[in-house]
Amino acid sequence: MEIRLRTDADMPALLAALKATHEVDKYPVLPNHVTREWLLEGDDGMAWVAEDGADVVGHVAVAETEEDPDSLSVHRLFVRPSARGHGVASALLTTVETYARLLGQDLFLEVLSHNVDAIHLYESRGWFRAGGYTAVWAGPDGNHAEINLFAAPHNDPTHVLRLGSGRPTE
Ligand SMILES: CC(C)(COP(=O)(O)OP(=O)(O)OC[C@H]1O[C@@H](n2cnc3c(N)ncnc32)[C@H](O)[C@@H]1OP(=O)(O)O)[C@@H](O)C(=O)NCCC(=O)NCCS
After folding, report:
1. Residue 169 forms beta bridges with which residues?
2. Ligand 1 pocket, residue 25 CB under 6 Å
3. Residue of the nearest CA to atom 31 in ligand 1?
4. How many Cα atoms within 13 Å fall on the side-chain side of residue 49?
5. What's the CA gap between 153 and 107, in Å, rounded?
6. Would you list the domain boundaries of the chain?
């Protein structure tokens, strides 16, 4: 398995993997978010894919954190369901963590409460919960998702993110 920078040629395989991920994990929550636009949203082009032979099996992106330009956020981490449990997400996360450490920046991510595999993965890698809030938007079931903020193991533990206005914090 190889981690390399994402290219435009990866999009069809990534969208197929994202569709399968939505069906299994409700990630993304809404079916109409299984699009190129959603996948690229908020990322400034810094993104990697995991490749197994000729197959693109996973993706992660990183971008400036909306609420704090001095830190980075992980975006759009997912692994095709048939490729899970072999360390693909761990390898993708290691890549992003190394990138942030080289830039000397703290690294955050947001994860919905129902994405329990992802939360387990972050906690097992030493990420720690740094807050949370209830989404202002409702999912297809009418419920407002609980969003958890996690901080990378290398973060300054006193670095608190001020979550955006209009987003109720705890
Ligand atoms: C969360 C997610 C990315 C994890 O992907 P993954 O590639 O299966 O993750 P990994 O293989 O790196 O780690 C998962 C487990 O496999 C184990 N593992 C790692 N290397 C392994 C190997 N060589 N062989 C077998 N298992 C291995 C890990 O220890 C971990 O086990 P754990 O249950 O004890 O934590 C995936 O489930 C997913 O795409 N979920 C939906 C999308 C999502 O929620 N994204 C998060 C958005 S914030």
Report:
1. 133
2. yes
3. 85
4. 23
5. 9
6. 2-108
Q: Which atom of ligand 1 is nearest to the CA of 109?
A: 48
What is the domain class of 2-108 according to CATH? alpha beta
- How far apart are the CA of 132 and the centre of ligand 1, in A? 22
Q: Is the CB of 166 under 6 A from ligand 1?
A: no
Task: Say if pTM beats, i.e. exceeds, 0.90.
Answer: yes
**Nearest CA, atom 39, ligand 1:** 78
* Residue whose CB lies within 8 A of the most ligand 1 atoms, among 14, 74, 76, 79, for a mutation test: 79
- Phi and psi at 3, nearest 5°, equal -105, 130
Radius of gyration of the chain (CA): 15
Q: What is the pLDDT of residues 17-43, one digit of tens each?
A: 999 999 999 999 989 999 999 999 978
Give pLDDT tens digits for 63-90: 998 888 889 999 999 999 999 999 999 9
Burial of 43 (0-12, 13-18, 19+ CB in 10 A): middle
Ligand 1: centre distance to CA 104 (Å) = 26
Q: Is the peptide bond before 140 cis (omega within 30 degrees of 0)?
A: no
